[in-house]
Amino acid sequence: MLYLPTSGAWTISTNNTPFNRPKMVASDNPYLSKDEYVTTENAVGLGITATSAVYTSGRLDRLIVTASAQVNQFCRRWFDTQTIDETKNGIIVRPNNPQLVTVALQNAPYSKVNSIYFQVLKWFIQIDATTQGYIQDFPDLGFYKIVPLLSNSGTGVGSPMPAEIVDKVPLGVLWTNYTFGFGTQITGQTMACSDGTIYKAYQAPLYSRLFAPSQTINVYKNAVLVASNLYTIDYANGMVTFTSANIITDVITSDYTSNESVPFDIKQAVILMVSDYLAKGQSNPTGATGYSTQTFSINWDNAGSSLVKQAKELLQPHAFTTPVMMGI
């Protein structure tokens, strides 16, 4: 018989999530800004500058996101800082032989497990995720361990997983909300005006321009917090645009998480892939394997360009090659 306590420990969700909002999943974000790319030797060799059409039209932004997504796909993980929900299905605990249950997360290192909920049908019980609670953290390795049985009733806010509910039956789902990635928190970063004398657009310094979209960003004018509805954010280029003009003496600063600190190999792989896209777009836009005339011929390597091969070599140490654990 399925036992559900009637105390306040349990909540029911109409959205089938513990937060009554859609599930937060990992997304593809850029690993370098277009201003960084145009300073590289690859861009110089291709003749790409800040005045090139590919830069001013926004195409370079899209190519960088595409290359970053390919890095994620190849490595089967994400490297920028994000906060997501991850689920593990078919949870079974054994009350007669209680042991720590290992929960392997898809992304590492993680900085914090924000919340843990145990689900049966649409019922959720919150598990204490604090350091004084019922989990043991291994953030660099990407997993934590949870106490499966300290209470049979499941009563009381923050109780551990109630074993009676999933004894020998894979009915449970474990929801973990956690923050991961190689991003760095930046506080009080001065933003420079980037639109001449209009004083609406302000940008972070070069090499500090990758705002993490899922993390909190605070913007200040003359040390006073600005309401979020008074500006828009270009996360990929570290830019804040106000709805109303400021004046020349206004000082704009911001607190945000920067993804500029992702591993060098990741950024370099993106640079190589973007360069490959641009080079093929210039010399072989149709993707032909080769062409010839009476006097000469050109052939392309079907196995992939040398730039892509270099990128994959850089990514090998960062790739997850073991199967992703879907259950526990």
Task: Describe this protein's structure.
This protein has six helices and 17 strands. α4 packs across α5. The longest helix is centred in the C-terminal third of the chain and has 20 residues. 19% of the residues lie in helices and 27% in strands. The protein is globular, with a radius of gyration of 25 Å. The strands form four sheets. The protein has a seven-stranded antiparallel beta sheet, with no helix packed on it. The chain has a five-stranded antiparallel beta sheet with strand order 1-5-4-8-2, with no helix packed on it. It has a three-stranded antiparallel beta sheet with strand order 3-7-6, with no helix packed on it. It has two domains: 248 residues, no CATH class; 78 residues, no CATH class. With 328 residues, it is of the alpha+beta class.
